[in-house]
């Protein structure tokens, strides 16, 4: 009796990941334009701001990639680990990093800065960084080696178990991974398409007991950095993916399952992945816009004799954004922020208005008067 073919690796065309070029091309053109815009925007920043952008993107990539899989890391620990590597002014006395977060930073930087060939040994090294204790969620797993058992992705609702995906048998892993590494190292495919295919191909092989999703996203970072020339370090793809996490798993499942993907067509996956890249770059461009906006604001502010209270309030407004103050700054909030009296707060606010650094929100008056930064 013939076995029913349900999973993408059982299809006769596997591993040729077909897609409709005419559908994908507009997204690829947009990604190329956005990459050019990002290069141009970065060129206009000073070294301090460029490094700040890299640090923020690195912190977010590590945190969000782990959170996609349900692992919540300490932001303070990740920040310390990143800044130890990337900030020459790092204060070691306030170091809150851990060996685990230090390792995650090393993994990320290796994927972004080391363009040597991707090998089995390198992948195993990445895997050992993810699971330094040899355990995952309290269970002993094989680390730095391919799995030695069958692997399926399942969920449970009550007594009902749903199989979302069944990976290739472990006996096939060596052959599967050799083909995969050959593609990653030598394919001349468009970089954005290549990163999407490498992503879904790796998670479909599912070579490890755990950590396959995180390593797949690390490989995506590696492919984009190596292929584009511009280091893929100014934006966080995992942040964009985590914001659309439900769609991430949905499009993956429907692409891997031949019941949904009868035509063996990966256009939807590549389109979704390319959209995430565009959103990640556009988010970075917005951050650069804010950096430039803040720089111009402080250039203007330095022309005036601001006291420590005024400087503290302006810094908080710029760092957190006025939206976090429910529509703007009020006298009461000013008092609470700097622990001063109402008369002093009013004088300070009047001074900031006179200097052109804040302005009254139109329509607000009396006790409900609100103020916004004036850029």
Automatic annotation (TrEMBL):
The residues listed in the UniProt record as binding ATP, with positions renumbered to this chain, are 210-217, 248-249
| Keywords, sorted A to Z | ATP-binding, Nucleotide-binding
User: PROSITE patterns annotated for this entry?
Assistant: FIDO
GO-annotated molecular function: ATP binding
**The keyword Metal-binding appears for this protein:** no
Q: Where is the Fido domain?
A: 118-272
Where are the active-site residues found?
A: 206
InterPro entries named in the record: DUF4172, Fido, Fido-like_dom_sf, Fido_containing
Q: Which PANTHER family match?
A: FIC FAMILY PROTEIN, FIDO DOMAIN-CONTAINING PROTEIN DDB_G0283145
Instruction: Please give the name of this protein.
Output: Fic family protein
Q: Which organism is it from?
A: uncultured Sulfurovum sp
């Amino acid at each position: 009796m013939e076995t029913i073919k349900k999973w993408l690796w059982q299809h006769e065309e596997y591993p040729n990941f077909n897609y409709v070029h005419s559908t994908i091309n507009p997204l690829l053109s947009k990604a190329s334009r956005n990459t050019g815009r990002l290069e141009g925007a970065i060129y206009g920043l000073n070294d301090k701001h460029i490094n700040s952008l890299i640090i923020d993107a690195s912190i977010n990539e590590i945190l969000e990639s782990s959170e996609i899989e349900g692992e919540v890391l300490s932001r303070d620990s990740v920040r310390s680990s990143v800044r130890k590597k990337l900030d020459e002014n790092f204060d070691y006395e306030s170091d809150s990093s851990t060996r685990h977060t230090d390792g995650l930073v090393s993994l990320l930087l290796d994927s972004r800065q080391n363009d040597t060939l991707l090998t089995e040994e390198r992948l195993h090294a990445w895997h050992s960084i993810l699971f330094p204790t040899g355990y995952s969620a309290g269970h002993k797993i094989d680390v730095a080696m391919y799995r030695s058992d069958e692997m399926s992705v399942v969920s449970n609702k009550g007594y009902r178990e749903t199989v979302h995906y069944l990976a290739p048998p472990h006996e096939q892993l060596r052959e599967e991974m050799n083909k995969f590494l050959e593609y990653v190292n030598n394919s001349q495919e468009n970089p954005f398409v290549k990163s999407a295919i490498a992503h879904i191909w790796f998670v479909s092989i599912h070579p490890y007991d755990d950590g396959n999703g995180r390593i797949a996203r690390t490989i995506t970072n590696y492919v984009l950095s190596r292929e584009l020339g511009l280091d893929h370090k100014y934006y966080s793809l995992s942040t964009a993916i985590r914001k659309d996490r439900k769609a991430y798993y949905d499009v993956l499942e429907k692409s891997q399952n031949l019941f949904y993907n009868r035509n063996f067509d990966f256009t939807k996956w590549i389109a979704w992945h390319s959209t995430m890249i565009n959103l990640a770059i556009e988010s970075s461009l917005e951050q650069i816009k804010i950096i430039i906006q803040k720089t111009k604001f402080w250039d203007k502010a330095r022309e005036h004799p601001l006291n420590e209270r005024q400087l503290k309030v302006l810094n908080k407004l710029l760092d957190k954004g006025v939206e976090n103050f429910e529509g703007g700054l009020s006298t009461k909030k000013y008092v609470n922020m700097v622990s001063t009296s109402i008369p002093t707060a009013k004088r300070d606010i009047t001074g900031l208005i006179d200097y052109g650094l804040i302005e009254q929100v139109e329509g607000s008056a009396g006790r409900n008067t609100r103020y916004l930064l004036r850029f």
